[in-house]
Each structure stands twice: as C-alpha cells, then as structure tokens.
Amino acid sequence: MSRLRTVAGAPALALIVALVTAGCGVRPTGVVDGGEPAHGLTKDLRIYYVHGSGLQGVTRPDISLQRLDGVLKLLADMPSWAEERGLVNLVQLGSYWTSGTGHRITLHSPGASFDSPRDRLPNGQLVCTLARAQSFLHRDEAIRPDDVRVSLDDGERTYGPYQCSQFLT
C-alpha cells in the first residue's frame, strides 16, 4: 500500500516542482521608460531659516514670485508663526541685487560679511533660499535646487559658488 501511494504521489510532486521552478509566467522585457521625473521637491517655494545650529526649510505655498530678488524680501519678512517654532533669520543685508541665469547666480551685497565662521548659517540661508527660488522660478526648465550654484559677492570679493547641500550637513 505504501508503495502504491509513493507511485501515485510522484506525478503530483513532479507537477508541483515543475510549477514552482517555472516562474510566474512573466516574460522579460527591455528597458521601459518611466516617464517624466518627479517634480514634488520644487513645486512650492521654500525659504530657509535657522533652527538651533542648522537650517530648516519652510514651504511657502501660494506665493507669487516674479524675480529672484523678491525671495530675499520674503526671507526678511519672516512670518510670526516661524518665530513660535524656534526659527530665526540671521541674514542682515544692506543693498543687494542678483545676477546670473540658469544654474549659476550671484548675490551682490556691497559691504556684507560672508567670510567669517559666524557667517556660515546666514550664508546657508541665502544660498539655499536663492537656489530654491531659482528652481521655483524656472520649474518649467527642470532646474533642480541641487544643481544651482550660488556665489556671494561683498563688493570686494566673491565667495563660492556654493550648493545648498554644503550647508545642510
């Protein structure tokens, strides 16, 4: 009787093994286009403030920005709720303007301080905010914030170019 069960069970076992080793029937394909890259990171404008010893980006949805210089006015006009969250603005600029296009921009601010160790966080605020604003203004051209290089010019010397990622560590 046990020999009969073994003989009868052998074809069933062979069928199970064949099904398991045959795979699921999906045939290999070539390279498949994944479509357009994600745009979620550059959808809204983001302004950077200092939180503790680092930078924190604050999304500012529904902001209309026409020129790169305008984002520095938004940085200076910190919302009241930001202070409640422990955010501060360390940027102090006199006169300023921006120049450049695409992936390279320069902030000109005669007499500003960009070279001392205490300028690291305010410089980071400027670089990250300007890079995000450039990406926001040129979102149709798919300029990513990480691709933007920002130089800081105090009228005597130009510092950089910097990337935002240099200030986020």
Which short descriptors sum up this protein?
GerMN domain-containing protein, 169 residues, alpha+beta, 4 helices, single chain, signal, 3-stranded antiparallel β-sheet
Task: Describe this structure as you would to a colleague.
The structure is a single chain. With 169 residues, the chain is of the alpha+beta class. The chain has one domain (42-167). The chain contains four helices and seven strands; from the N terminus they run H-E-E-H-H-E-E-E-H-E-E. A four-stranded mixed sheet has the order 4-5-6-7, covered by helices on one side. Strands 2-1-3 form a three-stranded antiparallel sheet. Strand 5, helix 4 (120-137) and strand 6 form a beta-alpha-beta unit. It is elongated and about 90 Å long. Residues 35-42 have low confidence and may be disordered.
State which percent range the strand residues make up.
Answer: 15-25%
* H-E order: HEEHHEEEHEE
Give average pLDDT, whole number. Answer: 83
State the helical fraction: 25-40%
- How far is the N terminus from the C terminus? 74 Å
Quaternary class: single chain
> What spatial form do the alpha-carbon principal axes imply?
elongated
Strand order of the largest sheet: 4-5-6-7
Structural class: alpha+beta
Task: Tell me about the largest β-sheet.
Answer: 4 strands, mixed
Our Rg estimate from Cα atoms comes to 28 Å
Count of DSSP strands: 7
State the low-pLDDT regions, or none: 35-42
- Helix count? 4
Number of domains: 1
